[in-house]
Amino acid sequence: MTASITVEGLEVVFDRFRALKGVSLEVSEGESYGLVGESGSGKSTLLRAITGLAPVSAGTVTVNGKTLGKTRDKAFYREVQMVFQDPYGSLHPRQTVDRLLQEPLAIHGIADGEKRIERALDEVGLGKGFRFRYAHQLSGGQRQRVAIARALILEPSILLLDEPTSALDASVQAEVLNLLEEVRRRRKLTFLMVSHDLAIITHMCERLMVMQNGEAVETLTASQLIGHRVSEDYTRNLLRASEGFVRA
Question: Is the pTM of this model over 0.90?
Fold first, then answer.
């Protein structure tokens, strides 16, 4: 199977603090792959290193067969989009949904904007009625749907998801996760998803990597995690600490 994302020996250093310590992973085309671990384990830093938002001091990132340099070009952002944790922070509150969706199209010089905006809103279950509302008029779930629409509008092949539902109520979380799963299947997307919630990761992902202190602890399938067939004490402790984690 073709690899969509390959990370080899990735190091990220902030002011002499090693946030990532030689992390490697491979995500297959069309796969949904999870990253789990406690806060500060390096999960989000890994996503940001892939997108060029964190400084890589060693190692390589290869996306769809192309090894990336220090900077990311427009072609990269056509292929890879990120959905952030906080829809209140990632959307400008004083811009209309239309403006928020127009912006990436303008940056990339894409002409068929009308059709793409309508399709993106429809795809995330909002419809035309939301197009000229302001972000500050929307609920958290609606804002995150707009953030997903904005990520999809460039028709990427890879979505990086940084705790995409952790800021939402439990009932809305399920709706947004189901939406993401539908979109992935329909568009045959590759997901790399960060979450501290093991139940979400096992629901959404086929494989996952457990991280601690900027390092990979172990790589598992979702069924191995559900069945508690794990090798490392750290992973066992995560399972124990995950209240409400149900064996399926």
Answer: yes
